[in-house]
């Protein structure tokens, strides 16, 4: 039977016919019928197998046009559209073309889509980049599936779609979106997108900067809410654009921003023609509005400026016709402005003068350069300027004529020239005086000898003939002179006086004879200059002496403060204690370094704080405080009582600190307390003496009375004698008590108790 399986149906039938004689008729008929049915079934199977083979070949051909078919061993069964296709070569792993992931990383050979499908993986719409050194990069979407037969991978199919155009289109779209977003964000004007109900979707960067808000703070809010309002503007461009479905423009002043804005709202319609969005453009026209206002003001100002000068001002055309004029011209010609405008200015002059003016006007128009000249008219002298005004092409279209009456000026110029020389001399004198002042004042630690040498060097330049002038300064026998100094007959001298005593002199000499002036060859102003210089030198010497005295005083004062038995300190409102004398170590136990920079209040005992604050209040008012008793903590924890005398430090009419002198009165306060206790004890003793006398006298009187009842005279006398003796003792005590009270009253009167 095993051999029968490999036989064809026709051969099988022949074998059965050969075996037929051994079978009966019925068996042969049944066997023949079965064989016929078997042959028919095998024939149908062959047809179906042929059809399946054709379908397989068609599928493989179709797949091969945009894909690759592998057998189980990885061999390529079909590939299309052909090995010349770069995508196919890349998927097949050809070395001349590289397959990469979208990020640019290359795909290893073992990770090719076909190899992964042969391992049983399924890839759906994976993107790859194909790089061909000889052409542009391609982009493909690749899918791969294994072919499973009888539970095992018998092959694989890989298909792809070239999406290079789509990728490039997406990239261009992204670039366009980036460009549009960049343009939107970087527009100088404010652009926003909102819904028809004024809900803000977004603004560009200029909009957020104007509002001073972030996108998160703006999105979803109404436009008027961003300005702090509860309702829309009275005139709203967005409302008008929603109603008209076309762009609307509104100009308005926004007081919350303090700016004039031009609001342009442009609707974006949907497919139904309804307004979907509003694009709002805001232009800051504040400068334009202000420019318009300024233009109106400028015109008014120009008219005022035109009328304000005392000169005659007219505006002419190229031929000399009057276009405008100021009020001074109307008064000078005794005509109204309306009467003058339109007339030719040449008709107001004599023929000869008119011809000269016409020639000058033509020269200005032709050359484009202003002309200035002087002219006499009706006994007055005028300074006339013809100034051309050109258009954008440089052609002169107007000429402004300004005529100024300079009659008085001309008369004053002569007088001015006469004074110019004198003024120059005074300038020289002032310059030399300034230079000398600078020499004296410029040094922080000046030397008198250096000052004298520099002053004598610059002194000759202040005289009328500096090249022929020499000078010398003599102070306390020391001489400082310029080169070539020599005493000549042409000499000026001024003494240097310090605190009423002449200590030297300043000399100026001409080496050669000069014309006679106010004081020999010298001017009176030069005498004044010499006296001023000598006076400044005297003041400078006094100041140097004062500096020396001040330094000595400061040194002495510093030594006094350092050696003072009392504690002296300076405290500022800002910075705390700036200085404290060494006595603080003896009084409070702190070194000065431990105190500097701290506040005085930190050391005050809490019980003294009310008195301390009262003293601070007086100091803040600029009042001094005397005899303020304050208890301070010592470093060892004990308490010291100080009597403070305070003076406010005032600068620019404000109290900035306080100077304090503190005296340690701790022992004095303790002695006062002991003395007070002693006086209190004396008071108690005096009272006890008075009470004791009363208590003794009363029993004595009883004893004396009872003794009178006794019959024995001797015993009675003895008792009476002892009673009188005790009374004398008590009387002595009373006299001591009275004297004690008198002493107490004396102490009270003199504040000793």
Automatic annotation (TrEMBL):
<dbReference type="Pfam" id="PF08448">
    <property type="entry name" value="PAS_4"/>
</dbReference>
<dbReference type="InterPro" id="IPR000700">
    <property type="entry name" value="PAS-assoc_C"/>
</dbReference>
<feature type="domain" description="PAC">
    <location>
        <begin position="626"/>
        <end position="677"/>
    </location>
</feature>
<dbReference type="InterPro" id="IPR052155">
    <property type="entry name" value="Biofilm_reg_signaling"/>
</dbReference>
<dbReference type="GO" id="GO:0000155">
    <property type="term" value="F:phosphorelay sensor kinase activity"/>
</dbReference>
<dbReference type="InterPro" id="IPR000014">
    <property type="entry name" value="PAS"/>
</dbReference>
<feature type="domain" description="PAS">
    <location>
        <begin position="553"/>
        <end position="623"/>
    </location>
</feature>
<protein>
    <submittedName>
        <fullName>PAS domain S-box protein</fullName>
    </submittedName>
</protein>
<dbReference type="Pfam" id="PF00512">
    <property type="entry name" value="HisKA"/>
</dbReference>
<feature type="domain" description="PAS">
    <location>
        <begin position="298"/>
        <end position="368"/>
    </location>
</feature>
<feature type="domain" description="PAC">
    <location>
        <begin position="367"/>
        <end position="418"/>
    </location>
</feature>
<dbReference type="InterPro" id="IPR001610">
    <property type="entry name" value="PAC"/>
</dbReference>
<dbReference type="InterPro" id="IPR035965">
    <property type="entry name" value="PAS-like_dom_sf"/>
</dbReference>
<dbReference type="InterPro" id="IPR013656">
    <property type="entry name" value="PAS_4"/>
</dbReference>
<feature type="domain" description="PAS">
    <location>
        <begin position="176"/>
        <end position="227"/>
    </location>
</feature>
<feature type="domain" description="PAC">
    <location>
        <begin position="247"/>
        <end position="297"/>
    </location>
</feature>
<dbReference type="Pfam" id="PF13426">
    <property type="entry name" value="PAS_9"/>
</dbReference>
<dbReference type="InterPro" id="IPR003661">
    <property type="entry name" value="HisK_dim/P_dom"/>
</dbReference>
């Amino acid at each position: 039977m095993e051999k029968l399986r490999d036989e064809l149906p026709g051969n099988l039938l022949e074998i059965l016919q050969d075996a037929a004689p051994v079978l009966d008729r019925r068996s042969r008929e049944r066997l023949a019928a079965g064989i016929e049915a078997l042959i028919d079934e095998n024939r149908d199977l062959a047809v179906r197998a042929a059809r399946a083979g054709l379908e397989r070949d068609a599928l493989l051909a179709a797949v091969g046009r945009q894909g690759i078919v592998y057998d189980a061993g990885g061999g390529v069964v079909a590939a299309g559209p052909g090995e010349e296709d770069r995508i196919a070569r890349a998927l097949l792993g050809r070395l001349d073309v590289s397959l990469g992931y979208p990020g640019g990383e290359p795909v290893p050979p073992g990770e090719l889509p076909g190899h992964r499908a042969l391992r049983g993986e399924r890839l759906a719409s994976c993107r790859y980049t194909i790089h061909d050194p000889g052409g542009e990069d391609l982009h493909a979407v690749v899918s791969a599936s294994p072919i499973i037969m009888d539970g095992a991978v018998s092959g694989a199919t890989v298909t792809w779609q070239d999406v290079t155009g789509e990728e490039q289109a997406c990239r261009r779209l992204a670039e366009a979106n980036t460009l549009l977003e960049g343009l939107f964000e970087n527009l100088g004007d404010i652009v926003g997108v909102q819904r028809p109900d004024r809900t803000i979707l977004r603004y560009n960067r200029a909009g957020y900067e104007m509002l001073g808000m972030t996108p998160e703070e703006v999105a979803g809010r109404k436009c008027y809410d961003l300005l702090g309002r509860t309702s829309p503007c009275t005139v709203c461009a967005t409302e008008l654009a929603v109603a008209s479905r076309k762009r609307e423009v509104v100009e308005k002043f926004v007081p919350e921003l303090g700016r004039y804005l031009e609001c342009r709202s442009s609707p974006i319609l949907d497919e139904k023609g309804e307004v979907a969005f509003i694009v709002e453009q805001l232009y800051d026209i504040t400068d334009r509005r202000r420019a318009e206002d300024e233009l109106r003001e400028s015109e008014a100002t120009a008219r005022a400026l035109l009328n304000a000068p005392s000169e005659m001002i007219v505006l002419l055309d190229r031929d000399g016709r009057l276009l405008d004029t100021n009020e001074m011209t109307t008064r000078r010609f005794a005509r109204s402005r309306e009467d003058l405008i339109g007339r030719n200015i040449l008709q107001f002059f004599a023929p000869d003068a008119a011809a000269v003016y016409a020639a000058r006007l033509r020269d200005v128009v032709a050359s484009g350069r202003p002309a200035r000249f002087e002219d006499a008219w009706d006994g007055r002298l005028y300074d006339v300027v013809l100034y051309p005004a050109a258009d954008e092409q440089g052609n002169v279209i107007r000429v402004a004529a300004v005529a100024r009456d300079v009659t008085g000026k001309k008369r004053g110029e002569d007088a001015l020239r006469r004074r110019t020389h004198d003024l120059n001399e005074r300038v020289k004198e002032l310059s030399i005086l300034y230079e000398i002042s600078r020499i004296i004042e410029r040094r922080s630690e000046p030397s008198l000898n250096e000052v004298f040498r520099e002053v004598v060097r610059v002194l000759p330049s202040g005289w009328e003939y500096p090249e022929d002038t020499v000078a010398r300064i003599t102070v306390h026998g020391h001489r400082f002179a310029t080169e070539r100094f020599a005493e000549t007959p042409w000499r000026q001298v001024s003494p240097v006086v310090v605190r009423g005593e002449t200590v030297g002199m300043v000399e100026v000499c001409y080496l050669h004879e000069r014309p006679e002036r106010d004081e020999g060859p010298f001017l009176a102003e030069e005498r004044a200059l010499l006296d001023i210089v000598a006076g400044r030198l005297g003041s400078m010497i006094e100041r140097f002496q004062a500096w020396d005295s001040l330094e000595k005083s400061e040194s002495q004062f510093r030594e006094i403060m350092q050696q003072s038995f009392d504690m002296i300190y300076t405290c500022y409102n800002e910075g705390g204690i700036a200085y404290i004398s060494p006595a603080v170590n003896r009084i409070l136990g702190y070194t000065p370094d431990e105190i500097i920079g701290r506040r005085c209040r930190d050391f005050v005992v809490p019980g003294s704080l009310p008195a301390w604050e009262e003293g601070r209040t007086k100091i803040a008012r600029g009042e001094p405080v005397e005899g303020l008793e304050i208890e301070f903590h010592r470093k060892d924890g004990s308490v010291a009582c100080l009597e403070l005398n305070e003076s406010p430090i005032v600068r620019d009419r404000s109290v900035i600190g306080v100077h304090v002198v503190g005296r340690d009165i701790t022992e004095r306060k303790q002695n006062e307390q002991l003395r007070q206790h002693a006086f209190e004890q004396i008071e108690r003793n005096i009272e006890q003496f008075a009470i004791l006398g009363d208590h003794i006298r009363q029993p004595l009187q009883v004893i004396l009375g009872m003794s009178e009842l006794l019959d024995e005279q001797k015993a009675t006398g003895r008792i009476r004698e002892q009673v009188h003796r005790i009374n004398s003792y008590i009387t002595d005590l009373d006299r001591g008590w009275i004297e004690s009270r008198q002493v107490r009253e004396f102490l009270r009167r003199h504040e000793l108790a």
